Amino acid sequence: MSERLREKRCLVVGGTTGLGLAAARRFLEEGAVVAIAGRSPEKGAAAVAELSPGGDIRYFVGDASREDSVESLVEEAWSTFGGMDVLYHVAGMSGRRYGDGALHECTAEGWDITLHANLKSVFLTNRALIRRWLPESRPGAILNMASVLGISPSPHFFDTAAYAAAKGGVIAMSRQAAARYAAQGIRVNVIAPSLIDTPMSTRAVNDEAILDFLRTKQPLTQGPGRAGDCAEAAVFLCSDEARFITGVVLPVDGGWCVSEGQY
Hints:
The structure is a single chain. This protein is globular. Helices cover 42% and strands 14% of the residues. It is α/β, with parallel strands linked by helices. It has a single domain, classed as 3-Layer(aba) Sandwich (Rossmann fold). The chain has a 7-stranded parallel β-sheet, with helices on both faces. The protein contains 8 helices and 7 strands, in the order βαβαβαβαβαβαααβ. It has helices spanning 18-29, 41-51, 67-81, 108-133, 161-181, 202-205, 208-217, 227-238, and strands at residues 9-13, 33-38, 57-61, 86-89, 140-145, 186-193, 249-252.
């Protein structure tokens, strides 16, 4: 391996499953010291057991949507590793079961829960790291997880107003932060995936109509992407190879944003 993240201390929020777990694995392979954070101690223990043969990894329990929990987990991870160089915020959720949907159908509860989990959580983790980097004049790299639905809607199958708004908010907040902190050596970038085969997307990847749609909407693979596709992009954007890159929104989408898609 090229060890593009050699000795970098990386915090992956939402790193116990799916996209976060895939990224944690690649970070370790690239020489990083990795902290993963999530709400489930059981999933955290399983992730560490799976990944620990590959390098130095620790799990920290925390709910990224709660301010006190974020402050606690970041402080613990910071103290354990003597600082942090990279934050990759992956944690998020679908709000469908709470009432997210088309704008005229989305419930107030669905809106609040979805934005809380997908936008407020990013604000809290980003703020926590930046507040620690600034007083010590430390450079740092932040990578936030958005979605193509924040920039390229597809309401026929993916009509979720709150989720799209939350992911659009992640993009806007990240670009604002990129502009504000570039002079301090803090980079902030965004990955915007399309449909990736993960536990969160089980409903969609098992829907034959959606799979048929993806043959033309994601023509590079003619189907869902893999978690590793996002992990490779994350390694680059979090490494010093991307030292001259900030404020970027990178669609990792198999062609979604440039393809019409046929029903």
